[in-house]
Design goal:
By secondary structure, the chain is mostly beta strands. It contains four helices and 25 strands. Helix content is 9%, strand content 37%. The strands form five sheets. A seven-stranded mixed beta sheet has the order 1-23-20-25-18-16-17. A seven-stranded mixed beta sheet has the order 3-2-4-11-6-9-15. Strand 7 and strand 8 form a beta hairpin. 46% of the residues are buried. InterPro entries: Cupin_2, RmlC-like_jellyroll, RmlC_Cupin_sf. It comes from Pseudooctadecabacter jejudonensis. This is Cupin domain protein.
Length: 324
């Protein structure tokens, strides 16, 4: 795969409007889901995968108009979001009322596993959030709150225990040997923690302008053992600004993903692993995967505000993040 094929431009993203079980449920039926890197967790064969190469994590995105929400769900591995566009409310708990936080553009939320979470666009325009999911298989799918599965069935969508969606409005039926996905038992639900907002925010949310100040001279590790949000989810997330960017070439033993938040960024790479040396310019919303062991640099190419998220796998198993 040549380097051009490892860059996904924001304007080239291909949405899927039938990715998940709540695709027909009023209030959630206008959302668009994107799988940028990795297989993702979509339950629909309609989902387009832009870069299918394993990275040790998945990169996806959700685009939603105002007042559209993503229903309560959970993953077996880590899930972190940063807001690219708009203003978003995240909420969690069995019924979504245990706690909540509002994120502005650039803020990042390393959502604890083991709790149901959902989110909605509370801004005034189409919004976009970028997602990082731990593991190459993204934890084996999505676990939905029981009421989400029940509401979806009332609007024609049934999730089979094979992880696939079946639309009864289109006369689709569960194949022989496939049963409806069972809802979680009361005993399983009772074991799930219900952390409050005060318990979650200090260790799981980092604000954009705080990171801009901290990364004025050196990149800041946001998620990782030494991060602002200390965790070992199977990947590390760093934050780079104009003041902390450098022309010095660096490489990693795992693929590196670059995701500009603000400004335009020039990426240069040396010849390595069958690739010719080259350069490319990234804009906000673009996603680039630099191959492992490829020396590269990334610096702002224009004046003005500039910030970028840097994601790389660590080789650790993508474990739980909620320990409270």
């Amino acid at each position: 795969m040549i380097m051009e094929h490892r860059i996904v431009r924001y304007g080239d993203l291909q949405p899927c409007k039938t990715a998940f079980i709540d695709a027909h449920t009023p209030g959630s039926d206008q959302k668009e889901n994107f799988t940028i890197i990795g297989g993702g967790v979509s339950e629909s064969p309609d989902q387009h995968v832009h870069i299918g190469l394993p990275h040790g994590f998945n990169i996806g995105a959700a685009g939603q108009p105002p007042k559209c929400r993503n229903s309560l769900h959970d993953h077996h591995t880590a899930e972190a979001f940063f807001v690219l566009k708009g203003r978003w409310r995240f909420f969690w708990g069995r019924y979504g009322d245990a706690g909540e936080v509002v994120l502005e553009e650039g803020d990042i939320f390393n959502i604890p596993t083991g709790i149901f979470r959902g989110f909605e666009n509370i801004g005034t325009d189409y919004g976009m959030i970028m997602a990082i999911l731990g593991g190459d298989d993204a934890g084996g799918g999505v676990m939905w709150a029981p009421q989400v599965i029940e509401d979806a069935a009332d609007h024609g969508l049934v999730l089979g225990d094979d992880g696939k969606l079946y639309d009864t409005k289109r006369q689709q039926k569960l194949p022989k040997g496939v049963a409806p996905m069972p809802v979680m038992t009361d005993d399983d639900l009772a074991k799930r923690p219900e952390p409050t907002t005060a318990q979650v925010l200090p260790n799981h949310v980092a604000r954009y302008w705080d990171m801009m100040a901290l990364a004025d001279r050196m990149p800041v590790q946001v998620i990782g053992e030494r991060g602002l949000l200390k965790d070992k989810p199977g990947f590390e997330v760093s934050f780079i600004t104009r003041g902390s960017a450098t022309e010095a070439r660096k490489s990693n033993p795992y693929p590196t993903v670059l995701m500009p938040m603000r400004g335009h960024w020039k990426v240069r790479w040396d010849a390595a692993r069958g690739l010719d040396a080259g350069e490319a310019t990234l804009a906000p919303g673009d996603t680039m995967s630099v191959p492992e062991h490829t020396p590269h640099s990334v610096v702002p190419s224009m004046t003005g505000e500039a910030s970028l998220y840097h994601v790389v796998a660590t080789g650790d198993p993508a474990g739980h993040t909620w320990t409270g």
